[in-house]
Specification:
single chain, about 0% strand
Length: about 300
Amino acid sequence: MDFSRVGKKIQELRRYHSLTQADLANGICTQAQVSKIENGTIIPYSNTLFQISERLGADMYYFFEEARSDRPDYVEEVFEQLKEFRFNQEYKEIRSILQYEKANPLFQQGYYKQYMMWHESICLYHLDRKTEEAVQLINEAFSVDDNPTFTERKGEMMNTLAIFYDLEKDYKKASKICKEALYNLHQLKRIKNVSIELRLIYTLTKSLTNQKQYESSVFWCEKGIKRCIDSNNMYVFGELLYQKGRNLIFLDKKEEGAKSWSKALAVFEVTSQKHLAEIVRKELQQINAEGTFEDLIYE
């Protein structure tokens, strides 16, 4: 294994967080040791690497896989493509990449293999509608990296699993998974990717609304909206405003609900989410003209 890559990655993350070597070393080791680790002169003890990874908001096992991989830049590029396609719900493109990389030994290692299995489960559900197989595969993926601790990626995977159950109308199981993931996420010293937390909150609000737990869903919508504002993160901001509006209307607070939808519409327009803007526009017109609306559900 090439541990010089670990040092380079630690250095990149340290600089990204605007930390000096002394800042990173504080309470863990000496500044000189951090310097040697970054230069690849010494291999860090596992407990040292664990504490460093926590301070950098990274997963220790990520560093091990970085050391094992012969082509980390290529792996990173593939993962970025899969992430983009997942965000845009372009599942055929995801499958295309998975098939192309199927025999690539780079993706046969635990941490990398987990990522590929997760995306294969997404394809099994959304393209083939093989719910049972998709659930089984993603559950296998949770343990394939030999890391018993909770990670942000596992939070993302739990959200995917919750979405499967929500779409299959097993709303109780979906909300239970989201709450468990959010609890584990909040046990981490620092959440590096706030978007994971926001997505889990949004999935939870939908499952609660589907259980007619409107007040509880409003509570989580407001929690998510505040988190968006506090973290300066627009991810699912419009969706949470929209979901809050739905709940308020179901609670017979139509005026408040329409106001929340108007805010959601403004967000969707600014962010060029045309399809979502059109849905909210139609429902706003209906609620203002008829006092009711045709519930246009989207994933």
